[in-house]
Amino acid sequence: MPDFVDQVVLHIKAGDGGHGCASVHREKFKPLGGPDGGNGGRGGDVILEVDPNTATLLEYHRRPHRKADNGRQGSGANRDGANGGDIILAVPDGTVVKDAVSGEVLIDLVGAGTRYVLAEGGHGGLGNAALASAKRKAPGFALLGEPGDELDVMLEMKSVADVALVGFPSAGKSSLIAALSAARPKIADYPFTTLVPNLGVVTAGDTIFTVADVPGLIPGASEGKGLGHEFLRHVERCNTLVHVIDCATMEPGRDPISDYEAIEAELKAYGKLEDRPRLAVLNKADVPDARELADIVRPMLEERGLRVFSISAATHEGLKELTYAMGEMVAAARAAAPVVEPTRLVIKPKQLGDTGFTVRRVDDNTFQVTGVKPERWIRQTDFTNDEAVGYLADRLERLGVEEELTKAGATAGAEVIIGSMENGYIFDWQPTLNAEAVHQGPRGTDNRLG
């Protein structure tokens, strides 16, 4: 089992709404005291919240299925059902939420306490007390609770750090972050020692900033080679890049300049990083040959517009100067960053004349009705109860569905699909089911459905 996970698919189910209750008040000498069925409770939401104390998505790798509580059913004596409890899922700062199927970015969660309702619980159904009217004084039915949202999402963590240390494997990035901060990453002299990004907090005068030790990159990392392609996204949020260059490597075909150019090529191929300020660190200056090589390549890197520092993570040589240089770059980047404004709630009113639904002809005598209200009403209807079906017909007629079906050319007996073609509710349309007909008959029946 891994101890660090930065990408995971999460299967989410919000709570279903509780059903409404169909009940009639009864007591001595008052056998029919009127409808008193309560409403169903609302289903719980699934909410993501940024938690500064959460640094990995490991918990969701272990338990990828999460479900909120359902709402309770209403009961007699006008007692409403309890609402289902929400579940709040803590995620690290810098988590991007995507639709697992389409890849569409749903939200980018940055900032402690930021919340996002990932899946909404279903509405509870109305009880018969709430459905009573002058025409229908004692309804013999109640509305069903709506199902909660269900979806699959991908959580992708991007480290929120000010400075990213980039370079070949074993260039000394882990040793450098350990020397600069209290972080204690695993360090060894073999490629890909670092398998997960490490974060360290560094202080330079009045500036406090975080440094990310990004796992080693190699040529082709942006195309999927090595480990770097999995962690390049952790560099995106960093406002400063520090090239850590190994001046003591004994590998054939490698030298500080080619290492720098190879890493720059990968960063450029990945994109999104062209505007980041950079500086270069020539590491392992405690080795005599490395110090000589650093003196040779320093002017070459400075010609490329880089500030260059010769350091030794082992002896701490040059670390103070490097720390203050990084602090200056971080402070400048923070000062230049635009002021973050609170998210504004945008209200989009419906266009004038918008009915809230559409009717389209599928073939000669088949029609499809789509829209929030008709599809919601279908989910709320108990089709085993004729009176409930009649109530649905009344609602659709008042909304104007029957009129639009007539305009579209539907005739009696036409096949009408409300909702999607795959999962919609199909029925044979009878235009006689309209709100002008007065409901008669025992409770739970409708004389129009005889």
From TrEMBL:
It is found in: Cytoplasm. InterPro entries: G_OBG, GTP-bd, GTP-bd_Obg/CgtA, GTP-bd_prot_GTP1/OBG_C_sf, GTP1-OBG_CS, GTP1_OBG_dom, GTP1_OBG_dom_sf, OBG_GTPase. The lineage of its organism: Bacteria, Bacillati, Actinomycetota, Actinomycetes, Streptosporangiales. An essential GTPase which binds GTP, GDP and possibly (p)ppGpp with moderate affinity, with high nucleotide exchange rates and a fairly low GTP hydrolysis rate. Plays a role in control of the cell cycle, stress response, ribosome biogenesis and in those bacteria that undergo differentiation, in morphogenesis control. Its cofactor is Mg(2+). GTP binds at residues 167-174, 192-196, 213-216, 283-286, 312-314. Signal peptide: none annotated. This is GTPase Obg. GO terms for biological process: ribosome biogenesis. Monomer. GO terms for molecular function: GTP binding; GTPase activity; magnesium ion binding. SUPFAM superfamilies: Obg GTP-binding protein C-terminal domain, Obg GTP-binding protein N-terminal domain, P-loop containing nucleoside triphosphate hydrolases. It holds the Pfam family DUF1967. Belongs to the TRAFAC class OBG-HflX-like GTPase superfamily. OBG GTPase family. Its EC number is 3.6.5.-. The gene is obg. The keyword Metal-binding applies.
